Amino acid sequence: MSRKKKPLPLLQNITIEDLAAEGKALAHHDGMVVFAPFVVPGDVCDLQLRRKKHSYAEAEAVAIHTFSPERDEPFCPHFGECGGCKWQCLKYDRQIHYKQKQVEAALTRIAKVEVPPISPILGSKQIKGYRNKLEFGFSNRRWITREEITKDLPVENPNAVGFHISGAFDKILDITYCGLMPEVNNRLRNAIRDYAIENNLSFYDIRQGEGLLRNMMLRSSETGELMLLLQFAARTDAEHLQATELMKYLSENFPEVTSLLYVNNLKCNDTIGDLPISTFAGTDFIYEEMEGLRFKVGPKSFYQTNSKQAYELYKVARQMAALTGKETVYDLYTGTGTIALFVSHQAAKVVGIEYVPEAIEDAKENARLNHINNTTFYAGDMKDILTPDFIAKEGKPDVIITDPPRAGMHPDVVRTILHAHPERIVYVSCNPATQARDIAMLDQAYKLVKVQPVDMFPHTHHVENVCLLQAR
């Protein structure tokens, strides 16, 4: 006979002290650390424990008795259910304050190297509508909101298009408004949902692996262009016809979409890197512009999701590289070649490496488009391409600029960098923790001399950081 679990306690009048990992707030109670989302330092609240371990617990704020002066009014109706913008309730000047602390903590606690004075974080001038890319999933298992549960509202439509719920892989929160991208994202997403429901199009069932509508991606650019990619899972002639009719509807009713694309994905996951993309209307790419350069961005290409702030980020990287026009520069994880081309006029030669072949083709096209002749681009896994033989062929780098994914650099890549021994390394990172880990590995040969955080993602806990390492 199984025992009933003892209910977890309600902690009353708890003062939130700080912000911790993953954007959660932090408090203490009886020597135990308690983490809770959607509250800010200075709030005094009641915390209902939801999960308890030996030395910490996870909780939910069920009442706030005193509101912190750091608190702000969220602008999104989905705040508290959607986990995308956990810091909307925090004033922006305090957001960047805690991001600065996050960078400092990573470098001192993880890298454990001598840290120079950290430059004040560069805040984003635009804090709403700043993203140029959003992805939304479709599901026939809509997330039931707290309001629907507490008010016992009927669930009239189980379908949803929106964001995945953390910890519930098959559930999607139905999104009617998102303020992170220009307003067109709301008009398009809501129109597709309405059309699908009116015309009985099936929403994806991740458990069964079936359903026509699977995913949608929107990309906008500073040039005013707009890309929409719809991901279908069409298995029958009838479903293929439904997909075609939906694409016709979008082409006729949304002329602002300059690149209307689709892909049929019958795999078990949403990744499309290995699938062919079809063009229904317009071009198969959009252009982005920065400092007189034009960049061709395709549906599989990586481009920084905050265009305006990316310009500030790249200016920091270029300034740290301190190029004189004589250097050979390696741009690791080059994406569509944005950083490589951005610094090319100040270098003798730039070599870009990226694992996505389509992105490298875009990088080559971008070089041609901008009449830049001193860049070379290679596609493949970084640890397989960046070898001593490769360096012997392309020339020893004077400067390496590296902008890896969140996981950081593979140890083999770090070892090759140490072998190549450039004079300077400019390390751009979207994850200060893995950046600090890699800097610790480089510390034997390089000294950390400059640190510049840049806020690319207002209302989230994410922060970009640029470090300059100088050969010892």
Textual characterization of the structure:
The protein has 472 residues and is an alpha/beta fold. Helices cover 26% and strands 29% of the residues. It is built from eleven helices and 22 strands. It has helices at 92-111, 146-150, 184-198, 237-253, 307-321, 338-343, 357-369, 382-385, 388-394, 411-420, 432-442; strands spanning 10-15, 18-19, 25-29, 32-36, 44-52, 56-66, 133-139, 160-165, 168-174, 213-220, 226-232, 259-264, 278-282, 286-290, 293-297, 328-332, 349-354, 375-379, 399-402, 424-429, 446-454, 464-471. Strands 9-8-7-10-11-12-13 form a seven-stranded mixed sheet. It has a seven-stranded mixed sheet with strand order 18-17-16-19-20-22-21, sandwiched between helices. Strand 17, helix 7 (357-369) and strand 18 (375-379) form a beta-alpha-beta unit. The N and C termini lie far apart (66 Å).
Topology:
Layout: E1 10-15, E2 18-19, E3 25-29, E4 32-36, E5 44-52, E6 56-66, H1 92-111, E7 133-139, H2 146-150, E8 160-165, E9 168-174, H3 184-198, E10 213-220, E11 226-232, H4 237-253, E12 259-264, E13 278-282, E14 286-290, E15 293-297, H5 307-321, E16 328-332, H6 338-343, E17 349-354, H7 357-369, E18 375-379, H8 382-385, H9 388-394, E19 399-402, H10 411-420, E20 424-429, H11 432-442, E21 446-454, E22 464-471
Helix pairs in contact: 1-11
Q: Brief description of this entry?
A:
With 472 residues, the protein is α/β, with parallel strands linked by helices. It has eleven helices and 22 strands.
Shape label: globular
* Rg measurement, Å: 24 Å
- Note the main sheet: 7 strands, mixed
Widest beta sheet: strand line-up: 9-8-7-10-11-12-13
Estimated share of beta-strand residues: 25-35%
Report how far apart the termini are.
Answer: 66 Å
Low-confidence stretches: none
Helix count from the secondary structure assignment: 11
